[in-house]
């Protein structure tokens, strides 16, 4: 009789879940399982969204100084760069190009000396490939003019030297010049015309910007440059575009992209994200497997009902499906609640965190300690779908053993003491 009804298992399973139990402890365990799954799913979504936000923020800051794709020649010297620049402007996905001169140097001010990476740029073209102008803390990028020997420093570098805008520093080039008295290092006095702060110590403490014409004079580059910086319409296409450009230009050029230049950094961030996912997924797994204890006790509590259903023709498979439905419903409710909670918090974390900070008078990321003082969040629907599916699958797996035990219940043994 029962075997002919397709909705029988679903009906009984839903009824067992909704019914007020004689054993309130089973109801408590069921509720605990739902809450545990909901909290685990919400925590996974929130933490991954925050890590995505940090990753995006760091990527934005790095690409504010670094280029999407970089083309250079042997010994970091690029000849006939004007014609090459015209060719690359027509390349697919390339939005803008800018020449640069990259060299090492040493800055001196008073008794302070700091080694730096010197980048010679043309402000008008550099603004098309990088967002340095948005990171200026004093002065402007356009203050770099040919022949005026102005220099823009990172804030940490300026602090280490003890200089401010308007001060004059001496830049020493490692390549010396030969004189009758021997080799004398080339040096030139520059005036600080601006300060920038990207939020990456590598740049803020070790990068100095000068005009490309001044860099060519100091480092005797004549009409050559170190390379060309390219900006793409989609930064995630950088590996593909760099490969295409490399094949197009041949073996006389070196082509690299931002994923190669900062590969170790982004691999470390991605590894942290994966580890956090595994750790927090264990929380969901523990909560999901609480369903096992819930269903085991439910099977024990319903032994008489199972025996009666078996007597009236219910098959072992039907009994198993009843408890699978019951356990899956617990997991589904917890997953849905946790997903909604996680999406709401992750989408509004920019409002929630400041409210908590003002309420308790604390600051999670102090501005004088951390470069990123706000808690960023980027909700990816791919993460939400993956977490939701993982939670539901774990919940479903947790129902299999108790349901199998229920299907093996012997009606005679179950009704003997009833």
Keywords:
six-stranded mixed barrel, alpha+beta, elongated, 418 residues
The total of helices stands at: 16
Major sheet: size, sense and barrel closure?
A: 6 strands, mixed, barrel
Number of strands: 10
Query: In order across it, which strands form the biggest sheet?
Result: 2-3-8-5-7-6
Task: Bin the helical content.
Answer: 40-55%
- How far apart are the termini? 24 Å
Q: How is the secondary structure organized here?
A:
Blueprint: H1 8-18, H2 24-63, E1 69-72, H3 81-89, E2 94-109, E3 112-121, H4 123-129, E4 136-139, E5 150-154, H5 155-161, E6 168-179, E7 182-196, H6 201-204, E8 207-211, H7 212-218, E9 227-232, H8 238-249, E10 254-257, H9 258-261, H10 263-301, H11 303-311, H12 316-347, H13 349-360, H14 381-398, H15 400-407, H16 411-415
Parallel strand pairs: 3-8, 5-7
Antiparallel strand pairs: 1-9, 1-10, 2-3, 2-6, 2-9, 4-7, 5-8, 6-7
Helix pairs in contact: 1-12, 2-10, 2-12, 2-14, 10-12, 10-14, 10-15, 12-14, 12-15
């Amino acid at each position: 009789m029962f075997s002919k009804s397709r909705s029988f298992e679903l009906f009984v399973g839903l009824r067992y879940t909704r019914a007020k139990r004689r054993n309130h402890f089973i109801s408590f365990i069921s509720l605990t399982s739902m809450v545990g799954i909901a909290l685990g799913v919400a925590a996974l979504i929130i933490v991954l969204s925050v890590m995505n936000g940090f990753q995006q923020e760091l990527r934005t800051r790095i690409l504010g100084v670094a280029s999407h794709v970089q083309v250079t020649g042997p010994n970091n010297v690029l000849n006939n760069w004007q014609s090459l620049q015209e060719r690359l402007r027509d390349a697919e996905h390339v939005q803008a190009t800018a020449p640069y001169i990259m060299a090492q140097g040493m800055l001196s001010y008073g008794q302070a000396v700091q080694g730096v990476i010197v980048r010679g740029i043309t402000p008008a073209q550099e603004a098309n490939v990088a967002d340095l102008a948005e990171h200026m803390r004093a002065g402007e990028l356009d203050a770099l003019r040919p022949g005026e020997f102005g220099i823009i420093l990172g804030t940490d570098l300026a602090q280490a030297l003890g200089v401010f805008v308007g001060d004059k520093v001496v830049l020493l080039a490692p390549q010396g010049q030969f004189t009758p008295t021997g080799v004398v290092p080339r040096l030139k006095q520059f005036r600080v015309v601006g300060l920038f702060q990207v939020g990456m110590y590598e740049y803020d403490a070790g990068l100095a910007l000068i005009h490309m014409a001044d860099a060519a004079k100091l480092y005797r580059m004549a009409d050559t440059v170190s390379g060309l910086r390219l900006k793409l319409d989609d930064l995630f296409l950088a590996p593909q575009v760099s490969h295409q450009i490399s094949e197009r230009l041949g073996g006389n050029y070196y082509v690299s992209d931002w994923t190669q230049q900062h590969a170790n950094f982004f691999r470390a961030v991605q590894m942290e994200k994966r580890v956090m996912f595994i750790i927090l997924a264990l929380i969901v797994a523990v909560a999901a497997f609480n369903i096992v204890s819930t269903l085991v006790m439910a099977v024990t509590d319903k032994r008489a009902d199972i025996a009666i259903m078996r007597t009236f023709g219910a098959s072992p498979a039907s009994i198993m499906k009843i408890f699978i439905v019951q356990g899956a419903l617990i997991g589904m409710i917890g997953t849905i609640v946790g997903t909604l909670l996680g999406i709401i918090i992750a989408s509004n974390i920019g409002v929630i965190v400041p409210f908590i900070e003002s309420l308790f008078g604390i600051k999670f990321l102090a501005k004088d300690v951390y470069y990123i003082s706000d808690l960023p969040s980027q909700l990816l629907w791919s993460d939400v779908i993956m977490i939701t599916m993982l939670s539901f699958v774990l919940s479903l797996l947790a129902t299999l053993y108790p349901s199998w035990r229920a299907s093996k219940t012997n009606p005679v043994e179950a009704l003997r003491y009833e």
